[in-house]
Design a protein that fits this description.
Elements lengths: L1 E3 L2 E3 L4 E3 L8 H9 L4 E3 L3 E2 H5 L3 H5 L10 E6 L3 H13 L4 E6 L4 H4 L11 H14 L4 E6 L9 H10 L4 E5 L14 H8 L7 E4 L5 H11 L3 E4 L9 H11 L8 H19 L1 H8 L3 H4 L7 H7 L5 H14 L21
Parallel strand pairs: 3-4, 3-11, 4-6, 5-6, 6-7, 7-8, 8-9, 9-10, 10-11
Antiparallel strand pairs: 1-2
Helix pairs in contact: 1-11, 4-6, 6-7, 9-10, 11-12, 11-15
């Protein structure tokens, strides 16, 4: 049993990574239904929360069926981080997570996200400010370091644990790598093997199959795995990994009927959460990933992104299900290089 503060998880939990413009409530709903053990919101600007920015406030929306759920914040100012943690606590998530890993320029230039990796003392002070301002468990997601010459994650892990964080998720790349190249889990393993470390350590980066999840579990000894890109358009990845870890066998890939059903569920949650127009529009970027692997799907995908009502979408989905009935999907492999998103 893995524990984060008073949160009890399974022996080897699978976490859904916080992904900007992806990890909204509708996406989280289908991931939870398909085996995600712990999920996080999209990352939220501490300054945006304090200014009462509409987009930032909307990201605070969480639902009981998602629990346990963490709200992730980012920022470079101690006071703002502390105040935003209090705002977060008011909506009653299960934990507060701090993003010290986002590599995108608009975040880094504000001295937030992965930029904090350049100054461990600042990172410690920001973390301590959040820990002191909330009674919720505080966790951190970060990277190995700023660049190849400053991989300071072993020191960072000890320092953050000392000021009170309850778990640490580590993406196996530096900020300078962005999402390119192969994630290096050897330093994640060193953090986990450190006798001083007693909090759960979760590994993140390049998990795109059940086989790799088992291999990395055994090789690097982490307490659990955080999955990001592999879940986009394929929430079944969580249960597929769980089944493989338990039995050594593979679940059959989802059929076209199962894929269409999850698209409908995702659409329903999207419209329910954002309203008809925004909900329908938000779904348009998901269809390609859900329907990947179907031959000559372009015509139907074009229909899905142009129709404007749920009824019309349902009609297109009915047609897709009828036309591709019996299609045999292969087990999914994710093209990590081409599937980009903003996350730690």
């Amino acid at each position: 049993m893995v524990k984060i503060g008073n949160i009890q998880l399974s022996d080897f939990p699978l976490l859904l990574a916080p992904m900007e413009d992806v990890s909204d409530p509708p996406f989280r709903a289908v991931c939870k239904a398909n085996g995600a053990d712990l999920m996080y919101t999209e990352f939220i600007s501490s300054e945006g929360l304090i200014r009462d920015a509409i987009k930032s406030r909307q990201k605070l929306d969480i639902f009981d069926y998602e629990r346990p759920i963490g709200i992730q914040i980012f920022g470079g100012d101690e006071e703002a981080m502390a105040m935003s943690a209090k705002i977060v606590e008011a909506v009653n998530p299960d934990l507060v997570d701090i993003n010290f890993g986002c590599p995108v320029k608009k975040v880094v230039t504000k001295g937030a996200g992965a930029a904090v990796l350049k100054d461990v003392e600042v990172m410690v002070k920001l973390t301590e400010a959040v820990v002191r301002s909330t009674s919720l468990p505080v966790t951190v997601k970060t990277r190995l370091g700023w660049d190849e010459n400053t991989k300071n994650i072993e020191q960072v892990a000890e320092r953050l644990q000392d000021v009170g964080i309850k778990a640490l998720a580590i993406h196996g790349r530096t900020r300078s790598q962005l999402y390119k190249g192969e994630a290096d889990w050897t330093l994640i393993a060193k953090v986990k093997d450190n006798p001083r470390i007693h909090i759960p350590i979760f590994g993140n980066g390049d998990i795109d199959s059940a086989e790799k999840a088992l291999e990395y579990k055994n090789r690097y000894g982490v307490d659990g795995i955080m999955i990001g890109r592999a879940a986009i358009g394929y929430p079944w990845v969580f249960n597929e990994i769980k089944h493989f870890l338990k039995t050594g066998g593979h679940l059959q890939p989802p059929t076209i009927t199962q894929r269409v059903e999850v698209i409908r569920q995702h659409l329903h949650h999207s419209v329910q959460w954002k309203g008809l127009i925004a909900g329908v529009n938000e779904m348009r970027r998901h269809y390609t990933n859900y329907l990947k692997g179907l031959p000559n799907i372009k015509e139907y995908r074009l229909k899905l992104v142009t129709v404007k009502s749920v009824e019309e979408i349902d009609e297109v989905l009915d047609e897709i299900e009828r036309v591709y009935s019996g299609h045999q999907f292969e087990r999914r492999m994710v093209d990590m290089e081409t599937m980009a998103y903003s996350c730690g």
